[in-house]
């Protein structure tokens, strides 16, 4: 198991523990999610299904897009998508579904399915790790640590985001590194479409590495569990024991990157299916 796979394993347990301690209703919803509530569509690069697996959240892989039962669909990054899939899911969102996508889906899927909202710029990124400043009202805001911004890994040739309709599109997170390097600061966006909702992020939810920017990032992972996720000492001990991971196995930066993506996926699922599962 690689360090980042280990990080996602610990991140998932830590996110669940954070919900148990701080937001038990969110954990209740997460535990009630069924396989038919979440759809994941294959891509060439990203693997959001691996994050869902680490969270032990069930999902349906590549269900019939014309007869979608799921309340939320995740679209993995790819260099191309079937035209029928684009048309079907555009209609599904218009009728009330959630769609979450990553990286190259921006131009190959989102810009086609939801015109005049967002598109890729003409630039592509290097393989690098950027700092992220989350909107205070975003789903990421609770895991932002002052003085140690969340990190987000960019693939080689990730596609920076250009907003075409600022009145419609909301910036969920931005980066000074992206602004400085590519004149395109947006990390994640969301917008309503018909009765539904779209959320897109640059690069991938399943990241392969991170970077130690400061001495704080090199500190043990338990520093982030305490300062970033605000887990109790008992909670930290519990997740380390349950995952069989030693505190010195991972550092602050690794667990921070994995936890940021994992928390975001969990929150998006809960937001999309919450009312439905609680009414069962």
Q: How would you characterize this protein structure?
A:
The chain is of the alpha/beta class and 280 residues long. The chain is 39% helix and 18% strand. It contains nine helices and twelve strands. The chain has helices spanning 3-22, 24-32, 48-54, 83-94, 105-113, 176-182, 221-227, 233-243, 252-278, and strands at residues 38-41, 60-61, 72-75, 98-102, 118-120, 128-131, 133-134, 151-154, 161-163, 170-174, 186-193, 196-201. The strands form three sheets. An eight-stranded mixed beta sheet has the order 2-1-3-4-12-11-10-7. A two-stranded antiparallel ribbon has the order 5-9. A hairpin with a 2-residue loop joins strand 11 (186-193) and strand 12. Helix 1 crosses helix 8 (233-243), helix 1 packs across helix 9 and helix 4 crosses helix 5 (105-113). It starts with a helix and ends with a helix. The mean pLDDT is 90.
Helix content: 25-40%
Q: Which percent band covers the strand fraction?
A: 15-25%
Give the overall silhouette: globular
How many angstroms does the end-to-end distance come to?
38 Å
* Helix count, DSSP H or I runs of 4 or more residues: 9
Poorly predicted regions are none
What is the C-alpha radius of gyration, as a whole number of Å? 18 Å
* Order of helical and strand elements: HHEHEEHEHEEEEEEHEEHHH
Mean pLDDT across the residues is 90
Order of strands side by side in the largest beta sheet?
2-1-3-4-12-11-10-7
Largest sheet features: 8 strands, mixed
* Structural class computed from helices and strand pairing: alpha/beta
Query: What's the number of extended β-strand segments?
Result: 12
